[in-house]
Amino acid sequence: MSSPARLTILISGNGSNLQALIDASNTTSLPNTIIVRVISNRKSAKGLQRAEKALIPTYYHNLVPYSKIHPSSNISTKYSNEAREAYDADLAALVLENKPHVVVCAGWMHVLSSAFLTRLEEAAVPVINLHPALPGQFNGTKAIERAWEQGKQGILKVTGIMIHYVIKEVDCGEPIITEEIELLQNESLEELESRMHTMEHRLIVQGTKLAIATLNR
C-alpha cells in the first residue's frame, strides 16, 4: 500500500464539509488519507473544534495583523494588496510545512492570491474548492441566494455544486466534479440551502478523492 494522501483543509466557519472529510477519511469513500492540519482564518470557527475533537492539528491564521503592518491607503478598501500578499505568502509557507498532497478549501472565505497559489503550484500541490453553483453560473459570494432569487422569478430551473481547482480568478478553475440540483417552486431559501449542504458533504469527499487519484505520488 502506498503512503497515505496528506490533506490540509482551509476553513472559515462551521466546518460541516470538514466533518464530512473527517468522517470519510480511511473509509471506502476516501481511502488511505490523513488530514495533517486544519487552518482557519477565523478564531471562532466551529470547524477548529471539530478538528481538535478528531485529534487533528489546527492553526489560526488571521489577516488583521497584516493590515496593521501594511495599512490600506484607500478608505473604501479594508485590506491593502500588500497585506493580502504578505498574508498569503505566510499561509503558503505554513501549509507547505506539513507537506500535503492536496489542499482543500472547505468553506474558506478568503480569496487566495498569486502569492499563495504560485508557491503551491511550484510545490506541485493542487488546491481545490467547493463552490455552491455550476461552472460559470454564480461566481463569488451568495451563490445559493442568487440562484434561489432567479428560481423564484422563473429565470432559472437548475443550480448545482462544483468542486474545482483553484486559480487566481475566483471560482473559475477547472471543475473536478459537478452535480445539478433542481430549483423547486415555493421552496424557501433555507430549504434550498439545507438540500445543497447535504449534497456538498457528499461531493466534497468525491471531489477530493478524484483530485488525489490524479496525483503522481
Q: Your description of this structure?
A:
- It is built from 7 helices and 7 strands; from the N terminus they run E-H-E-H-E-H-H-E-H-E-H-E-E-H.
- The protein is an alpha/beta fold and 217 residues long.
- A 7-stranded mixed β-sheet has the order 3-2-1-4-5-6-7.
- Helix 1 packs across helix 7 and helix 4 runs parallel beside helix 5.
- The termini are close together.
Task: Explain briefly what this protein structure is.
The chain is of the alpha/beta class. 38% of the residues lie in helices and 20% in strands. 36% of the residues are buried.
Helix content: 25-40%
Termini separation (Å)? 12 Å
Rounded mean pLDDT is 95
Structural class of the helix and strand makeup?
A: alpha/beta
Question: What gyration radius follows from the Cα positions, in whole Å?
Answer: 18 Å
State the low-pLDDT regions, or none.
none
Largest sheet: 7 strands, mixed
Strand order of the largest sheet: 3-2-1-4-5-6-7
SS field, number of helical segments: 7
- Strand percentage: 15-25%
Q: What series of H and E elements makes up the topology?
A: EHEHEHHEHEHEEH
Assign an overall shape. globular
Tell how many strands the DSSP assignment holds: 7
